[in-house]
Design a protein that fits this description.
about 45% strand; 2 domains; 13 strands
Length: about 220
């Protein structure tokens, strides 16, 4: 789920931090620059692990800051395909089930990766698994906001994001949150046994345990 990415960058140290040791100033600047940022095709940056190499520092004309080439390792969040992760349902839409991990909110389980058959309830804004029961009917299992859900990572998507300019003065602004690209999104799947809401399987195991108790009681009575 977490990996170490080896990165190289030129770090600018402003004059007001010259009183610090170079390595401490470099670490502060690297974390300030990268922490909680998404690097394209790398992942979500979490924290600096260590500095491998510090190059020579130079001062450019017209700039009082020092510039130092740094080779370092950074802790990055990027789950591998096939990893199983537990999160909480943040919301549901026709696009699928949106899951949060607490520190990362951009997880999507698309409709094709839900338990089959499932349907979207507009009134409840929730996906519903039509769970088949023994008599041939179905039992509706709702995927409600805040429920704990276990999913398998099926893919990820990186998007290059650029700043959104000011709206044109002669046209009304029509921008919305949907116009803003998500720089990094994880795709998940729950369409296999044991995945989905934890409450589904806890209830199922409890029912199986009750059935076993009933069978044992019957056998003891017959003896």
């Amino acid at each position: 789920m977490f990996l170490l990415a080896e990165l190289k960058d030129t770090i600018r140290i402003p004059p007001e931090t010259f009183h610090l040791k170079l390595i401490d100033a470099v670490k502060d600047e690297i974390n300030r620059k990268l922490a909680n940022k998404v690097l394209l095709n790398v992942g979500l940056c979490i924290a600096l692990k260590d500095v491998i190499k510090v190059g020579d520092s130079i001062i450019l004309p017209g700039d009082g800051a020092s510039h130092t080439e740094i080779l370092f390792r950074y802790i990055v969040f990027r789950p591998r395909i096939g990893d199983i992760i537990t999160g909480k349902i943040r919301s549901c839409s026709r696009e699928g089930v949106h899951v949060t991990l607490g520190f990362f909110d951009d997880v999507l389980i698309p409709p094709t990766a839900l338990q089959h058959p499932s349907r979207f309830e507009e009134a409840e804004q929730a996906w519903v698994w039509e769970y088949p029961v023994e008599d041939g009917s179905t039992h509706d299992l709702y995927m409600d906001i805040g429920e704990t859900i276990k999913f398998r990572v099926s893919g990820d998507v990186f998007e290059e994001s650029s700043p959104i300019g000011p709206p044109s003065s002669d046209k009304p602004s029509t921008s919305s949150q949907n116009d803003i690209k998500t720089p990094y999104r994880i795709l998940g799947a729950i369409n296999e046994s044991g995945l989905g809401l934890l409450s589904w399987w806890n209830e199922h195991n409890q029912q199986m345990g009750d059935d076993d108790d009933d069978d044992d009681a019957g056998e003891e009575y017959e003896e």
